[in-house]
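Model it.
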Amino acid sequence: GGENNSTMQPPLKESDEEKEASPLPCLPCCWICSKTNEDQSVLCHNCDISNGHAHIKCIVNQARAKNEKDYCNYKMATAVEDEKSLEIEYKSFKLMLEEPWLKCGRCGENYCGSTEKLLADEFFEYYKIRGGRDIRTCIAVFAQIKAHCRNLGKNKWSKQPYKKIQLFKQVVESNNQANEAKVFTRFKIQIENDIAACMSIAEFSLPPKTTPKPPEAACWICLDDEPDEHGESLERTCACRGSSGYCHINCIANFAAQKNTTFMQRMMTGMSMSADESSKELSVPWTQCPTCNQDYTGTFAWRLAVTFSFQYYSYPYNELRRQVSIETLSRVCLETSQYDTGIGAMKKEINLIRTMRKELRTDGKIASGFWVDAGDLNTQKTEQQLCDDDTKYCVYLMGFYKAKGETKLANDVLRELKIMGVETFVTSDKPGVDGSLQFSIEDMLNDVKLSPDKSVKWRKAEIKRLTKEFGKDAPKILDHKFSLSQDLMQTKSVTEGIVLMFEVVGDATRILGPEHPKTVEYTKYTTMVTQSFSMSSGKKAPHSSNIIPPQTKARLISDIPALNGKEVNAVRYTKDGEKLIVDFLEPIPNKPNRVKIPPDQLVFGLQTTVMTPGKKIGMISSFDTETKKYSVMPLGKMAMERYKQNKLVILFQALDTQKGALV
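Modeled.
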């Protein structure tokens, strides 16, 4: 939370009369055409609200004109020295096309959120008619998929980016014989690498596979297996398995409200409990499954938190259940990426607090409907509590803006906190204890990054604290452990980081189940990291297999239409080493199943183990149909090497990546 290091009270920036008198334009003025009309416009998050608006059609027209001019003036280098030079040239070319669409022309910052998605869609719409063999279409597709994956919004999952990149890959591959643009041919390998990268990004946005609901599943509260009276069907977003854990959201809400009422009755009978313990007792029925003791996730968790806040919003401001419900809503909205809901709730609370502070300063009291025991009010103590709450909700609001990518709005809140007297944020209730971190407002405004070493220290202390408070199987601890593993890899403790990743995957599978969204996310990321580690270092990633089985499938290139494109399985070389003996995977009429084929008539797939002319072992990354060359990644290197088909020797043994030798 924010540490208020000053006794200065937050002044009101301007009176209500001044606010009413401030002239506000009805429609924003576009900085490109300098016109004010009802055309759809967007606002750059980094520009000032008075001069950052631009009409969509103006941005599109400006980007089209700049792209056409830059593309006409583009001159390729006369020769390519190496793969690295070509990669640099491709990145420069891609930026030249993307920037007019995806960067603000005034401040140079990237657009974000829904604005980025909208402009990326316009980028693609303009170039899609040129087809998959035009490099501008390729770059527009890549930009659109990345923008959609970065801004998935409420659900966090979508099948569309993955379907689109798969379809686009098929379009590109199906036009191999078409007349290709000169620029596309030059950057063909880079485009294939970008397609693979986009597929990896899009995979993370795929919704997790879920097991169909068992026939015997029923709501554990009302015991009904049909939708309730409001049409709400059975849902399960916790870690329960089998037929347990299914419930109607309204049943859970009623159950949690009854739990809260019972708890408050016990409190009134004189039961003693700390503020933190009371908050936990009130929030747990709304956020945690009582069967598996794990948090609800996704939209279900968000809807329950919204219901929790609505249930008690009409209560007096300082009533315990109302305060706990608002804090629970802010936390759940952040965890489920429901940023707009969180921003709206925080703004509402801040406005209410400032209204009460104004009443308190003017009349020395607060209306009874807003405050418990309003008739017996300690003015100084109440003012301090409201000041602390104002600071707390401003910090939450800043966090939502940061998470949403609205950097300018987040910085505006930080400046407001600075005016209120907040100078430093501390991550512990006891500044100076081991693991606590301090952030000054100035550092946050200047976007000073936390060093990995400090982050590791803080996360270890946070894991220790959470374990003591919630137990070792709390999902919060899994998140912190996974983040800790990433921090460890940045501090060059790569092995320790990978070991911890596998530990988290194992714990998540045991605690949450193999199909839980968190488990799927951890598993995907860990698989990607271990593959990258093995390929770049030639070493076995801890807890992963260092043995890569032989890949011997290939595609036949032939002038005979009936044979061209047929899949075969290579068995071995002939005795003279001139040809490969292969088996057709599907029988060919009037043809023997096993035949001898020259290597230059076969195209082997990814991860096929080969030996280069320099006697180096590597794996095939891609094949260029124009130059008839393979791109090969030798073990222990990240740079690609290119070879003709007949210059490589296909290896039929498994590969040990740790020893760099054949098995």
